[in-house]
DNA sequence: CTTGTATATGAAATCGATTTCATAAAGGCG
DNA sequence: CGCCTTTATGAAATCGATTTCATATACAAG
């Protein structure tokens, strides 16, 4: 292992002190032209690169943030993460991505890890089962995305969310306007989003004077193990002609059932939009969330908070767009 | 900012030296039972968590690896990344994901960043435009995935790849067996994969005594700006009845064209498989790459290399699976 | 009672940077 | 020419851990 080139060797090479080398990098206006040249020659010659680790140690900033989401495999989160990464890179930040799989323990462990690594902040789609974030992160800035924070610390933190209720209302409303007579729903009761989406769904039914039957609504588990079963039950028992899916994973499972049982006639709506919806034989109605934008906004919010820790908490709600096919 | 609890404060609390506190964590067998208890009490009381930064500084290992890919938004890479992350988490490693967008400069910058952060290693789907990896990473272990390394250092590094040629051969072969009479191809000339996939495609044509016409093959740019145009040209000019797409992004763009021009009859094959292919009206033939497995294998290879820097270079080729619909 | 060996602990060096404080040289001014 | 202010630089402390080396105590063996 050819060992790493340190500031010491540059100092030696240039015949100056380490302090001077450091100044060449950070406050060159304090150093004479000739010395700067000597030092820079040394850096080039020895291919010096300052240790980010040592800098973090001294400066108490790692230029690293954590992103805690349920699963990068979910394209909504993928896009969101990409939004964060692009914004972060532009500002010289690195991103550590953590998948909780909706498991609160995993979330806890990842947050601890990020605290240990002294991340400068965390962007968090929380499972929502933590009472006291503040004691977990010890003053590290937190930005909540996708899901509202719960517990007593909830109001301490910045959020970037979408209007789940309105989006779902619009989707269910569109199904009915397309002539659906019995609209069922499958949602995932994850954090705050499930409830909000269900509320929107219910309100749309009510607005159209549709009765709300509890057997028309199925609650999925996040992992999607039983989605197919639930869907089949709704379809067969209730004879529904339209289905509202709480997220893209649920839709995928519903499509599987429809295909397997060769059910050709079903109006579908889903919260979240994906490009391939265009190519499916069913005309899928979707609620397009600006995932990438949520990512960049969350990152900017985090930066603002870092720059000004005492500024008032912000709550950003980004707009969804109904896509009718 | 309530400042961070350091080993010093635990030492003070327990009335011992910092060395002893450190030993409680790392070599408790050297410490007396009562002292351990005192120290542990202090840790609990003050909620001590060792600074990963300081540990990295001393131990010369960050327990962090870099993953450099073209784009997480590509579901192939998403899955791959998830495979890496799961394996890494299990071993206490964190992952920093970097998107190059096939831009060699970005790749260079990210690699530098990872070197600066003293990542323990890098898993790399390289754009392939770097002559000398070794001088870039300075003895940091590198595992190449998806694309073969090029340049003079190529044979220095472990690889985990798929058999592109065979996969493509099978896909084109299946198209022809399904009765295609004129098979065209669009591939992305990225790194080594484009050429290999094209080779497989050509061999399949030859095996069936089909002529190989160069106008039947279109080279896409990675960003997919002109894919639609190219596809339309192949379809209209060549009157092809089957199209082989070099990756899932290309397929997506082809589907757009087919939809827009209402072309109902087209046999499609694509390198890489996605769940939603099941729901598209065309019976898509696909080459399923075990992306998740590639991820875990790459991580394990990296760990092996770290454990034994001098062991011979390994070249792992994972199996693809032809999916016929 | 002395010597030798475990056992338990602490002081200090170290990792690679940054920053404060002190100092030396150079230049400006009356 | 002496005094004061810039300008340029270095020595040493610091960030928070780990590890080496030395030392002190306890206990066993002779």
Automatic annotation (TrEMBL), chains A, B:
UniProt GO MF annotations: DNA-binding transcription factor activity; transcription cis-regulatory region binding
Alphabetized SUPFAM superfamilies for the sequence: lambda repressor-like DNA-binding domains, Periplasmic binding protein-like I
Residue intervals passing through the bilayer: none
Entry keyword annotation includes Kinase: no
Keyword set, alphabetical order: DNA-binding, Repressor, Transcription, Transcription regulation
HTH lacI-type domain residues: 5-59
Highest taxon listed in the record's lineage: Bacteria
Protein name: Substrate-binding domain-containing protein
Organism: Furfurilactobacillus milii
Biological classification of the source: Bacteria, Bacillati, Bacillota, Bacilli, Lactobacillales
